[in-house]
């Protein structure tokens, strides 16, 4: 009797843990450690759960005393794996069909370059190939960004460059934003000391507004990663980005260090963050992982995004998968945004 009770409690505990890993939003734990990490890799979790279930079924066949317990947990793992895979499939397994671009469309490229590891020429080549008017480059310093802009200008795509760096934070890496001069002049608001007043803690984001007052606010996003000690700063960073998307016309792109699961509760009116909607999810690409680049896209985590408010709708999106070996641990993402006229 005691053995059966212990087995039942163990099964219930496993079921509760799997539910929490599957949908931490039910207890508003999607931005807490360690559930934030558990929900990040849904594709990999499905594979691991299926493998563990097979092992437990084999144990059940050869070990009669634990047959019922092993079988029950195996079934729970299979359900968990199936639902996890279902989430990935529902968010999209990849489409690269772009609607023919219109003159008013804006093409956005986001790539965490890991300190410019691919090299300015390669970064610029991708931007030119895609005809990008907005290039968000987390972990890219001003020197590399200027070299990218120079190469793009030589190819007929003149760009302005804005970089935000935290010189007093040893672990922080600069974030750079390139904007086509055809979109007008942009600036970053700074205080009297020249420090950006709208950004994210520990890792900088670039919030650029049009000098003329006409046009979208453009954000190169890079909140701190949710390591155990930095979860509060990560949460604050996501909240700051959500606040930047509460009102107005906004295009936001970069390495968010967060999936749409982590963003739950920070959006409204169909938005993932504030009123910004995720371009990948809206084009059936939301299940493809962008980090790390050395694992298959369906096993990685989709933490690099392009988002925009209702003034824009996505007419094309892709995760670039043929540059996985050029030095960065992130995959670039490209989105084509069309104006809604709103």
Describe the structure.
This protein has 342 residues and is α+β, with helices and mostly antiparallel strands. The chain folds into 2 domains: 2-91, no CATH class; 106-339, Endonuclease/exonuclease/phosphatase (Deoxyribonuclease I, Chain A). 33% of the residues lie in helices and 18% in strands. It contains 8 helices and 12 strands. It has helices spanning 2-22, 35-38, 42-62, 67-91, 120-130, 142-154, 231-244, 279-282; strands at 106-110, 134-138, 159-164, 175-180, 186-188, 206-210, 217-221, 250-255, 277-278, 304-308, 312-319, 333-339. The strands form 2 sheets. A 6-stranded mixed β-sheet has the order 3-4-2-1-12-11. Strands 5-6-7-8-10-9 form a 6-stranded mixed β-sheet. Helix 7 (231-244) links the parallel strand 7 (217-221) and strand 8 (250-255). Helix 1 packs parallel to helix 4 (67-91), helix 3 runs antiparallel to helix 4 (67-91) and helix 5 (120-130) packs across helix 6 (142-154). The chain is elongated, with a radius of gyration of 22 Å.
Topology:
Elements: H1 2-22, H2 35-38, H3 42-62, H4 67-91, E1 106-110, H5 120-130, E2 134-138, H6 142-154, E3 159-164, E4 175-180, E5 186-188, E6 206-210, E7 217-221, H7 231-244, E8 250-255, E9 277-278, H8 279-282, E10 304-308, E11 312-319, E12 333-339
Parallel strand pairs: 1-2, 7-8
Antiparallel strand pairs: 1-12, 2-4, 3-4, 5-6, 6-7, 8-10, 9-10, 11-12
Helix pairs in contact: 1-4, 3-4, 5-6
């Amino acid at each position: 009797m005691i053995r059966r009770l212990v087995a039942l409690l163990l099964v219930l505990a496993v079921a509760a843990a799997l539910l929490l890993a599957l949908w931490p939003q039910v207890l508003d734990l999607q931005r807490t450690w360690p559930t934030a990490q558990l929900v990040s890799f849904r594709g990999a979790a499905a594979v691991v759960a299926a493998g563990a279930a097979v092992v437990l079924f084999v144990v059940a066949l050869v070990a009669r005393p634990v047959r019922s317990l092993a079988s029950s947990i195996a079934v729970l793992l299979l359900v968990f794996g199936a639902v996890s895979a279902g989430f990935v499939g529902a968010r999209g397994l990849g489409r690269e069909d772009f609607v023919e671009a219109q003159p008013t469309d804006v093409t956005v490229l986001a790539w965490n370059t890991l300190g410019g590891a691919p090299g300015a020429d390669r970064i610029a080549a991708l931007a030119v190939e895609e005809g990008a008017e907005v290039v968000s480059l987390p972990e890219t310093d001003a020197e590399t960004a200027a070299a990218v802009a120079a190469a793009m200008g030589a190819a007929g795509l003149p760009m302005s460059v804005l970089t935000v760096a935290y010189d007093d934070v040893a672990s922080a890496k600069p974030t750079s934003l390139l904007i086509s001069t055809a979109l007008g002049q942009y600036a970053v608001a700074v205080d009297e000391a020249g420090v950006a007043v709208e950004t994210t803690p520990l890792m900088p984001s670039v919030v650029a507004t049009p000098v003329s007052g006409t046009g979208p606010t453009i954000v190169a996003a890079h909140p701190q990663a949710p390591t155990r000690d930095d979860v509060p700063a990560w949460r604050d960073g996501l909240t700051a980005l959500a606040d930047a998307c509460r009102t107005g016309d906004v295009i936001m792109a970069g390495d968010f260090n967060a999936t749409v699961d982590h963003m739950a509760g920070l959006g409204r009116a169909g938005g993932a963050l504030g009123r910004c909607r995720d371009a990948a999810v809206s084009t059936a690409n939301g299940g493809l992982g962008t980090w790390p680049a050395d694992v298959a896209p369906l096993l990685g985590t989709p933490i690099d995004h392009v988002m925009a408010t209702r003034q824009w709708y996505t007419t094309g999106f892709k995760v670039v998968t043929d540059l996985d070996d050029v030095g960065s641990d992130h995959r670039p993402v490209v989105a084509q945004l069309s104006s809604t006229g709103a």
